[in-house]
Fold:
Amino acid sequence: MPLLLDQIKLTHPNLYQAFSLLADGEQHLRGIMELDRYWQLLKQPVRKVILTGDKLPKDAVISGEYDLIYAGGTLSLLHAAVMAGKYGRKVMIFDRQTPAKSTRDWNISRKELLNLSATGMLTESEVDSVIVRRYKTGWVEFYQPDGSQKRLYMENVLDCAVNADKLLGLAKEKVMAVSGSAVFAEISFVCCYRFEDHIVVKVEDRKGKAFYYKTKVLVDVMGILSPVAMELNEGVPQTHICPTVGTIASGFEDIDFETGEILASLEPADTLPGRGRQLIWEGFPAENSQFISYLFFYDEIDSPNDKSLLSLFETYFKKLPEYKKLGKDFDIYRPVYGIIPAYCHNGFNRTRKIADDRIILFGDAASLASPLTFCGFGSMVRNLPHLTADLDRAIGENTLSKKHLGRISAYEPNVASMANLMKFMCFNSATDEPNFVNDLMNEVMIVLDELPERYRQAMFRDEMKIEDLMVVMFRLALRYPKVLTATWEKLGVQGSLGFIKNLAGWAFSPVR
Ligand SMILES: Cc1cc2nc3c(=O)[nH]c(=O)nc-3n(C[C@H](O)[C@H](O)[C@H](O)COP(=O)(O)OP(=O)(O)OC[C@H]3O[C@@H](n4cnc5c(N)ncnc54)[C@H](O)[C@@H]3O)c2cc1C
Structure:
């Protein structure tokens, strides 16, 4: 079979060169192309994967029976470890790749991570064992042509680098320790057949051999490519996205290993054919001499920009030396990548569909996290105690209808409202000056700098209170009145109304 790498040699020379040096470069390229299938899926007719029980083939043999079956083996492991270990539920997890192996690494603060020991999933020392580095401080900075940008420092925000595979490996061990539970690799979700009192999940192995498993609830944790999310949301599972690529590498010359670079832009928007994008870097010291660097941008799902990971990776390798100085020992440990999903709810409450009868969606499949700073990992860790306790109760009471399961979600009204701010970071050459996103964000940094540190910590930890957001917005409008016209241009009537509804929902929510 011709190598995929050879096929991109001329079109993506920088990516080709970097990945050719990796032992598993070809495999990662395959993974990137697999994720980029998302853009085609959005244009195709929605595949029906939730079928009625009468469609189950008569000769289907049930290979096993579980309380919960998780399709997808990343964040599912955290949830499943609690359901199995704490609540004694018999769980099965399968993934079309290798469960507990992620193409990302995560940053979070220790206080937030301690939710994992609060649920009893890990001990506190196990939590500490997955933190591979802790920084003294972190900063955010947006480019100004005259070098006057405000570097906003903050402590205890995304200041712990977590080894994702180590954490997921521990969770997997917890699942496997519970008799009757199982974790399967290289098994793909095909469809499910729903009956009144159970659901049958059809899966396939790499050779195309089908298997059927019976469960009380199917938990869809298949991430951005979830066909279940696609079906439930009628082909529009996300409104915005944040394509993200990067590497974990060593051999940079100018790294401060005690500081996290939470957001850093180095230049005005990249005006591509399409509509343009504001590229943003993130940089986090990791284990030993390793440093994680990411390049990403925010965009609307249906913008004409090329949003493929493949093309962003080419840009990443071209521009990386502008962000960090590569030494002669520069060495890539592994690439990291993914399409971070976002959903702006047009309503007072959650409008994204995240459940159906006997089906529930978590993680990126549910797309309830804010892509601004924290994403799906932070959201899962924060919400894990109630996402597990509530699902256990629902199973015990047999209240597994769409209405009941829909109440078990990581939806947070403050996060939903804050996600609107991402729209200001989606560059649009039709309405924006090339440095628009940087100018606006630089003003936000100045406003935050003038306020007590708790404002910036809350904003970057998804813990904002509505009254605090109002203070920030009011001060911003006074300092930078352009934000008012920009709001109109960026959000339009629909978007502005949606934002107001989100804020009203937040104001009247019991969790403020
Ligand atoms: C580079 C990068 C860095 C990030 N850093 C942070 C961070 O610091 N903090 C934070 O909070 N969040 C971060 N995020 C976001 C976070 O990684 C995601 O929210 C999280 O991985 C979502 O987990 P998930 O299990 O929902 O989906 P995924 O991680 O996408 O996992 C889905 C799994 O489902 C499997 N699958 C898909 N389709 C099928 C199928 N048909 N059958 C079987 N299996 C299937 C896939 O193989 C995959 O293993 C980052 C994301 C990226 C891309």
Observations:
- The mean pLDDT is 95.
- The pocket of flavin-adenine dinucleotide is lined by residues 71-76, 94-97, 102, 104, 106-107, 188-189, 221-225, 244, 246, 294, 336-338, 340, 363-365, 374-378 (CB under 6 Å).
- The longest helix spans residues 482-507.
- The chain is about 35% helix and 25% strand.
